[in-house]
Amino acid sequence: MQLPKGFTLAAHGAEMPAIGYGTMELPHRPAELVAAAIAAGYRAIDTARKYGTEEHVGEGIRASGIARDQLWVTTKVTELNAREADFLRSAETSLKAMQLDYVDLLLVHWPQPKVPFAETLGALAKAKRSGMTRHIGVSNFTIAMLDEAVHVCPEPLITNQLEYHAYLPQDRMLAALKRHGMILTAYCPMARGQLLDEPVIADIAKARGKSIGQICLRWLIQQPMVAAVPRPLEEAHIKEDIDVFDWSLSAEEMQRISALRSRHIRIADPPERAPKWDVETV
User: Could you give all domains of the chain from N- to C-terminal order, each with its CATH number?
Assistant: First the structure.
């Protein structure tokens, strides 16, 4: 995959695009949206077995006409399939759904405390060694869980995908990921729309002649080893959200946005699967 400098982040031999297209709960024309994202310049597509969009992702990839080796495809195995046999079966099902021979990144979607991490992470490593995925990682892991996962997994983990935006501090997690040489992949990068009404970001966007979404994404990817997976649903927004690489925010603008973290607003916190999140202080 050939992308300009600055478009990718490197971790344990992986070159992952810094911006990906998220496909959770696409309400309409999902395959068309995926194809439109690829046409706009996205080279990373993020899905999951739980999302129910894998088939549409595969269809969108085929419709795009872009060679498979020019794309980075991520999918995830639900915590309901944390046992080894179930985990590998889920990964195989995902590949069949997308009609792909492999994915570029396979993640454990949520931690499963009822199954030893060694078993789940061992299955994740087996998926890599068998060629089902090129790289592996986790999602929604706390710092303690991340440390254990790195310790028990026979293959290197390249990312922890979790909620991160200007309203939610992740300083301790970023430090932990740096210690492990890993990337933070941010989902809900605009706090599911809440940041679109934030005056601080609106002021910066107006002064810069950029959209609010572009400011939110630029703030994220301008931080070291941070990627993001926005989920724009209109073609104009799809094009806007990938147009964040040839300009940057000033240190003062970054600081103003970072000050919003004191709000401590968390969007994704499903009681049936969320762990006890790390306490962050700012």
Answer: 15-188+225-232 (3.20.20.100)
pTM, to two decimals = 0.97
H or E element, residue 15: strand 14-17
**Mean per-residue pLDDT for 143-155?**
98
Give the separation between CA 81 and CA 61, rounded to whole angstroms.
Answer: 26
3, pLDDT greater than 80 = no
**Res 47: pLDDT:** 98
Contacts of residue 176, Cβ cutoff 8 Å, sequence gap at least 6:
143, 146, 147
Name the H helices within 23-163.
Answer: 30-40, 54-64, 84-98, 117-129, 143-152
| Active site (catalytic) residues | 51
pLDDT-derived band at 4, boundaries 50, 70, 90: low
Q: Maximum distance among all alpha carbons in the chain?
A: 54
